[in-house]
Amino acid sequence: QVQVVESGGGVYQPGDSLRLSCKVFGGRFDMFVMGWFRQAPGKEREFVAAVGWFGTTEYYADSVKGRLTISRDNTKNTAYLDIHSLKPEDSAVYYCAAALTGTDMVALTTADLYDYWGQGTQVTVSS
Predict the structure, then answer these.
(1) Would residue 15 be called left, alpha or beta, if left means φ above 0 and alpha means ψ between -120 and 50 degrees?
(2) pLDDT tens-digit profile of 86-104?
(3) What's 86's DSSP letter?
(4) Chain centroid to CA 68: how far?
């Protein structure tokens, strides 16, 4: 059984930076493409970023390019999402997801392509 657990959310001020973590229990972590999504109140869940098996390939939503960095540490079964220069519009529940696709393709931008999901971690950006 695979379990995905996010951490690192909280209340931040505009301009801050944060790191979200996503630990996967069970399964072969190095065979999962890992993705991050977020959902703001009243909005649909949107794709943020994905990282391939070895951490050498990344894919980002156009809206977050340049401010967010996705990475992974296969020795720790953990993926990360670093967000810099936080803005109020970054406030959302951030979800981590794992995709067992059989390929190292990272352009997995829709939720239905992911097999396992965490419960989400709330990020609030407010002055």
Answers:
(1) left
(2) 999 999 999 999 999 888 7
(3) -
(4) 10
Which residue(s) pair with 21 in the sheet?
7, 80
- Amino acid at site 67: R
SS3 at position 97: strand
Q: Cα Rg for the chain, rounded, in angstroms?
A: 13
User: What are the structure tokens assigned to 37, written together?
Assistant: 């999504």
Q: CA of 83: how far to CAs of 1, 111, 116, in Å?
A: 30, 21, 23
Contacts of 55 (CB under 8 A, 6+ apart): 71, 72, 73, 74
- Examine the pLDDT at 19 and tell me if it is beyond 80: yes
Distance of alpha carbon 51 from alpha carbon 47, whole angstroms: 12
One-character DSSP codes across 100-121: --SS------SGGG-SEE---E
The H or E element containing residue 122 is: strand 121-125
pLDDT bracket for residue 74 (50, 70, 90): very high
Task: State the Cα–Cα distance between residues 84 and 41, nearest whole angstrom.
Answer: 21
